[in-house]
UniProtKB/TrEMBL annotation:
The lineage of its organism: Bacteria, Pseudomonadati, Pseudomonadota, Gammaproteobacteria, Enterobacterales. This is 23S rRNA (uracil(747)-C(5))-methyltransferase RlmC. GO terms for molecular function: 4 iron, 4 sulfur cluster binding; iron ion binding; rRNA (uridine-C5-)-methyltransferase activity. [4Fe-4S] cluster binds at residues 3, 11, 14, 87. PANTHER family: RNA M5U METHYLTRANSFERASE (PTHR11061), TRNA (URACIL(54)-C(5))-METHYLTRANSFERASE (PTHR11061:SF30). The keyword S-adenosyl-L-methionine applies.
Amino acid sequence: MQCQLHAAGLCYSCQWIDKPYSQQLEEKQQGLAILLESIPVEQWCIPVSGIEAGFRNKAKMVVSGSVERPVLGLPIKQGEAVDLCDCPLYPDSIRNVFPYLKQFIARAGLTPYNVERKRGELKFILLTESRFNSGLMLRFVLRSETKLQQLRQALPWLQAQLPQLQVISANIQPVHMAVLEGEREVILTPQDALEEQLNHIPLYIRPRSFFQTNPEVAEKLYATAREWVSTLNIHSMWDLFCGVGGFGLHCAANSEIKLTGIEISAEAIECAKRSAASIGLSDIEFDALDSTQFARSKHQQNIPDLVLVNPPRRGIGEALCEYLSEMSPDWILYSSCNAQTMAKDIHQLTGYRVVRVQLFDMFPHTAHYEVLTLLQRIAAK
């Protein structure tokens, strides 16, 4: 993949972009093997990849420059702002929206926030696209509510230019820190969630809920989890750190599995419940709780056949590893966005063997990737 921004030394987000993609995959697989070299792995599956460019469904843009000439991209460095509107990671359907957003910023009088001076209102623009229906969700991250009325009044023009805009919101983030969003979200449209579909499973994305940025590879990841679980004798499962429910819903749909999904984000849980209702799942429970605290309170009762964990980069941690080891479910399915913390966690899960490992390249041209690992409890002799 060619990128003029990288070639000009303006953006270094894709640190591996100069490597042939086949080499990137090979090095990622080798790195994963090194991390797990002290752990016996019964089956290494072939790495899964997708397209090399235009794969991102979400753009996170820092807003800088002036209200008349806004710049969408990276924070100002050495006095200059870097515009990422031509980044080849975004599909044309997203890149074509940016010119209208720049015009809108000027029309609405949304002064870009200046970090050094601590002045201005508009900090970030977040844009998410649904591959299912090409709908868009647009979020404006503002320093305060000062410009909120101006934003509302100017929206009809933007909606006329971009009829695919389905969800629009303003997030209020008053803190002068490198924090992406605040606690207050103001929905500016009748619709509050963007519908996506992966493997014919409807998934809903609300402004503050997490969703994978590479839907093509995410679809393969969920399908693989469903395939692996379908070969096991599973009647009940927990989906911890479940987000909007992608893994659990894939595994429970068209099966007799009793599903319990746990996620600390109440907004994500509402999305998961909406998905479950739309596909007619009844033997299911989603709760907005801390996954570790939930396991701690439940590990002596109603032990599920399988526990699926999909933690953030920090991993599941020592406490949850201890609780899972005590619970001893027959199977643990670990989806990780940080193989280093996953390897550390697996070392702390006592009484389990690694049955299968597969790498999913969700982040081409970087050293990052996702991993799906299946562990089975070792039966007592």
